């Protein structure tokens, strides 16, 4: 295995396709970028995208909005979250999840994570019983699905309102059922590093007509809700339209035009991501000091990133390990750092939430490393970077010896 430096770029995405560029150009030439700025008889790109995404997802309703984070906070508000209410959520997630809860007026209650990087079901059940939470925002962090059958047993028994954060699981399934089709509402992201790319953007899906009507009004539809693609019957809006504030967060036609062709390519891209994931997984499972999360048989995942743990690693060794990989061109993120870096942070730096004791989470995060897998990487690139990570781990062990 060559240890020449890795020279590919971890933030470089694939080019937007010619068909998406052509669709975007048509919107730009029309000048009608706003989703409600349509000619007589015209259905906007955004409305068409909502119809197509609802059909692809298998949901009755879909709202396209400005970001995944906006989708999360809007879904909570539309589901009836009241100011000061507690919301159960993952301790291992990214900052937009607790941020969305706080933005919606809620108070996050963090649930421990397991070594397989999914929410701890025993801790979830205990905190559902001991807290006053009516809401549970389940983050499928980094594409890892917990046992959704057991999750739903707890949700049903504790009478929780489940909102799924599917930013990392667009295209994933549990026991042949799409991620996002378990909760009262689900939220997706179309930010550049997600599974379809419009720079920023998001979706809310739901089978609840009342929730979706409130979400559409919250998104800033004014009284133009009948121009949506996958929307409840206008009669559902009769009182909701007067009781719901406008908190503008609409998707525009330009982003919708870019996304529609990508949706048709998503299933193929899921297979491509998983080929790359398995190349990295095969090599890193051979490293004795690594613990690689086990993927359950019922989970059909989307391997757009890869995680592994080095249990018991010290902070100094973790920083050295990241630096050694970076010197050879491999960009690892370490979730155990006490200081947030870029997109990577943990519950100890979210000081807008109540400080909570999460010893199991802290132990997991202390040895947790993460890597992006853009589709611009070839299979050979994936073998190369996995070899570098393994080499740096062996070097670290030799230094310790």
What does this structure look like?
The protein is of the alpha/beta class. It folds into 2 domains: 18-260, Type I PLP-dependent aspartate aminotransferase-like (Major domain) (Aspartate Aminotransferase, domain 2, 3-Layer(aba) Sandwich), CATH 3.40.640; 266-400, Alpha-Beta Complex (Aspartate Aminotransferase, domain 1). 39% of the residues lie in helices and 13% in strands. It contains 12 helices and 13 strands. It has helices at residues 18-30, 45-57, 68-78, 96-103, 121-130, 148-157, 209-218, 237-243, 253-284, 315-327, 359-366, 379-400, and strands spanning 61-65, 86-90, 107-111, 135-139, 161-165, 173-174, 177-178, 185-189, 202-206, 299-300, 305-309, 333-334, 368-372. Strands 1-9-8-5-4-2-3 form a 7-stranded mixed sheet, with helices on both faces. Strands 7-6-10 form a 3-stranded antiparallel sheet, with no helix packed on it. A 3-stranded antiparallel sheet has the order 11-13-12. Helix 1 runs antiparallel to helix 9, helix 3 packs parallel to helix 4 and helix 10 (315-327) packs across helix 12 (379-400). The longest helix is centred in the last third of the chain and has 32 residues, at 253-284. The protein is globular. It starts with 17 loop residues before the first helix and ends with a helix. The model has no long low-confidence stretch (mean pLDDT 97).
């Amino acid at each position: 295995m060559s240890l020449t430096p890795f020279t590919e770029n971890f933030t470089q995405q694939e080019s937007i396709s010619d068909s998406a560029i052509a669709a975007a150009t048509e919107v730009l030439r029309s000048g009608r970028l706003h989703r409600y700025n349509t000619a007589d008889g015209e259905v906007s790109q955004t409305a068409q995208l909502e119809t197509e995404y609802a059909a692809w997802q298998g949901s009755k309703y879909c709202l396209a909005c400005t970001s995944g984070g906006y989708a999360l906070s809007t879904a909570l508000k539309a589901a009836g979250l009241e100011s000061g209410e507690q919301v159960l959520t993952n301790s291992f997630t990214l900052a937009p999840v607790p941020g969305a809860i706080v933005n919606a007026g809620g108070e996050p209650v963090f649930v421990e994570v397991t070594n397989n990087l999914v929410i701890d079901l025993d801790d979830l059940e205990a905190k559902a019983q001991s807290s006053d939470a009516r809401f549970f925002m389940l983050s499928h962090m980094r594409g890892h699905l917990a046992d959704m059958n057991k999750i739903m047993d707890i949700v049903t028994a504790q009478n929780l309102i489940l909102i799924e954060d599917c930013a990392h699981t667009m295209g994933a399934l549990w026991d042949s059922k799409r991620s996002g089709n378990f909760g009262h509402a689900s939220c997706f992201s179309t930010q550049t590093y997600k599974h379809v790319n419009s720079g920023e953007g998001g979706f809310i899906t739901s089978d609840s007509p009342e929730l979706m009507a409130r979400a559409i009004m919250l998104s800033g539809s004014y009284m133009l809700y009948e121009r949506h693609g996958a929307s409840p019957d206008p009669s559902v809006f009769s009182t909701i339209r007067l009781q719901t504030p406008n908190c503008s967060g609409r998707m525009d036609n330009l982003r919708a035009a870019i996304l529609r062709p990508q949706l048709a390519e998503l299933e193929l891209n899921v297979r491509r991501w998983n080929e790359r994931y398995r190349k990295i997984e095969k090599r890193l499972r051979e490293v004795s000091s690594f613990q690689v999360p086990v993927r359950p048989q019922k989970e059909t995942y989307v391997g757009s990133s890869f995680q592994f743990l080095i249990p018991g690693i010290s902070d100094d060794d973790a920083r050295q390990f990241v630096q050694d990989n970076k010197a050879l061109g491999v960009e690892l993120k370490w979730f155990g750092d006490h200081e947030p870096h870029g997109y990577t942070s943990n519950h100890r730096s979210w000081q807008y939430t109540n400080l909570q004791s999460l010893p199991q989470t802290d132990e997991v995060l202390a040895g947790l490393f993460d890597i992006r897998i853009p589709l611009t990487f070839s299979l050979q690139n994936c073998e190369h970077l996995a070899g570098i990570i393994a080499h740096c781990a062996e070097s670290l062990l030799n230094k310790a010896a």
